[in-house]
Amino acid sequence: MSYKKWTLSVIGITALFLSLLIGFNFVMDPMWTFNHRTHYQNAQMAIDERQQKTNWLTFRPFHYDTLLLGSSRSTYIDQHKFKGFHTFNFAVSNMSVREYDSFVRYAKQQDQAKLQRVVIGLDFFKSSVNESTAPLSLDGNVVRANASFYRYKTLLSFDTFEYARKNFKAALKDKPIFERSYDNYNVASAVSYSDKVKQVRTKDKIKKFREVFYGPTYQYNDKYKAIIERVKVNNPDLAFIPFTTPISTELMQALVEEGRFDDYERWLRDVISVYGGVYNFMYPNTVTNNYKNYFDGHHFYPQVGDYIAERITDPTNKELPKDFGEYVTADTIDEHLKHVKELLNKQK
Prior knowledge:
The protein is an alpha/beta fold. 46% of the residues lie in helices and 9% in strands. It contains 14 helices and nine strands. The radius of gyration is 22 Å and the shape is globular.
């Protein structure tokens, strides 16, 4: 073979390889940088939700009137379950309250339907100094998504190929294989565990929360109220609907046993002071009492997320568990807390 033919053969093979790589990465689109849907995108892994969802907003039409913010717990709420709202679930793993403002700001920059409201999932453990002090924001992800040729570069990435390969394998299964999987409509599902595994995972999670989040290192952030107020002050044109994320009753009992009930009370009062009221789901009730509604006592399954969305937008729905969720205001907080204490005492 002549040198010229050899060179052309190498170029041809390389071009074919790159074409296959680019084509596969494009079809699977694991980083959500393009605007197409295929059957094989129905079980996508959560790689970096901040970047993936930022990419979604950057490269797809944004015709939503409602934004849902929150941590990984809130990612399991189906954005389509908020009746009367056209919602985009912008919740991401380990979201800090300090990030809210940057998330809303970027969503409004993409706004083609005039954002009207923000629904915020609030986690008690995020009220500590350790969990709410770092000056985090979405800005770095925004810069990356808007960099020149960013989404085309992802098509040439072997990391993208590896994610795409795993997503393709997952799509061939009949059930979720990742702890959190997304379909191509931004709806998350959770892997199913046996009851025995759920109990073990719940026990391990409670131990971690006692040691890391509720124990001696916990200190309520005196600036928490000012932090959650900032996003409201910066967006006077938006309505804010806060809710507390429901942890399992066992985990709630650990919170109380670690001496954090007064902080829980202060947290609720601060949220009410800022937003005028809060949908509280974080107390013993028929949903939180059932460990099967969680895969680790900390993260609830999507069905619970459906209940939350429906309680907020369709509170008279008779199919909802009657004792799950109560809208609490400054006028009702004292009575509500008294009731929560009574419910906790019954669990002893």
